[in-house]
Amino acid sequence: MTTFTTTDITELPIEVHHVDRIAESNGSIKPFKAPPGDAITILSYSPDFDAIIGPSPTQSLLLSTTTSSKNPFFHEACVYLPAHNELYITSNLLQSSSTSTYPTILISRLKLTRAPSSNTITSLEWAKLRPPQGIDMPNGGVNYKDGLLLCAQGSPAPGTGGIYYMPRNAPPKALVTNWHGRDFNSVNDVVVSKRDGSIWFTDPCYGYEQGFRRRPELPNQVYRFEPDTGELRVVAGEFERCNGICFAPGEERCYVTDTGMLYGDGGKDLQRPATIYAFDVVRTSSQPYLTNRRTFAYASNHLPDGIKCDTKGNVYAGTGCGVEVWNDGGSLIGKIVVPGNQGVANFCFGVGAELFLCGEQRLWRVQLGGGKGKGKEEVDGKGEWEGVRGDLLGL
């Protein structure tokens, strides 16, 4: 385990641009491109987004490998545990330093220290951890009980992959590892229902396309698992590459991203989906299922990956430009644009109106809702504020 501590964290203002939709649509102005450097820019398309970001949003570059190893340590999961002020992030594929021909994925654990009178992060301790045994090639994750759930994509060996519970002070536990004897493809992302505790997850075939997983035995599908009964159901199919998943407030709606435009080898087909689909969650015989599938949004910049909702129903997705935000009617209201060309694969809400953004080689903290936000003693410890909620709504 390698540990790194930094106190060199600077909070800077974010420049906000108000976009003229008509001028952008008719070509009078060119779409905004992030300038070079480490500065985040916010694009507002609506007064509704102005209300979300507040009068003085700020940014902090927490960690960067751009001038050192260049390794993409900040890729997926992005799970914040407010009770312990810890953040867990999975890396992108890292080339193995051993003789193995397969890459590896590491887990970063960040212990955050905040200023006593505000929500500002003053220092952090970064530990790079090898995944526990059984959690092969971890990807997405979500808060769960006293720890988190992690999606294990699996290895080339049969009988690997699935959803694992990782308590903070105990060995991990396998919750679901197969579909009636058939291995999952490469479990990608997961969300927990607040209504009944069921676990919903996506299973695309990226592991096989990236060369570390067996040939798929199942379609690309969304599953629902009940830990108390062991029941496992397919709740949605017919995806190119199902990816991120989240619920709207009240869980009357479920969103699933489809990143079919991107192949596992990095190739792209611009005619394939870069789409967010919305489903209605209805119940028959007390069992939920998904119906009324429709296109909610198509990402303006490459792919919609990780996805979440705030308490007002606005939908946030990590994309090729950073984070794009739509209202619950599917209208684009704003973007948080990160520098570089790697975008944001995943992100999470913290406390005091903050977001943590995973940008492969960079990890940012963005403070919304009024700059400094609430002091730590003023929040309820569940990662939520009047505009954003990040405890169990989605990853």
In short:
The chain is mainly β. Helices cover 4% and strands 41% of the residues.
Describe this structure in words.
The protein is mainly beta and 395 residues long. The protein has a single domain, classed as TolB, C-terminal domain (Neuraminidase, 6 Propeller), CATH 2.120.10. The protein contains three helices and 30 strands. It has helices at residues 21-25, 47-53, 206-209, and strands at 2-6, 12-13, 15-18, 41-44, 58-64, 76-81, 86-90, 107-114, 121-129, 138-144, 147-152, 162-166, 173-176, 178-179, 182-183, 189-192, 199-203, 221-225, 232-236, 242-247, 253-258, 275-284, 287-298, 307-309, 315-318, 322-326, 332-337, 346-349, 354-359, 362-367. A six-stranded mixed sheet has the order 3-4-27-26-25-24, covered by helices on one side. It starts with a strand and ends in a 28-residue tail after the last strand. It comes from Glarea lozoyensis (strain ATCC 20868 / MF5171). This is Calcium-dependent phosphotriesterase.
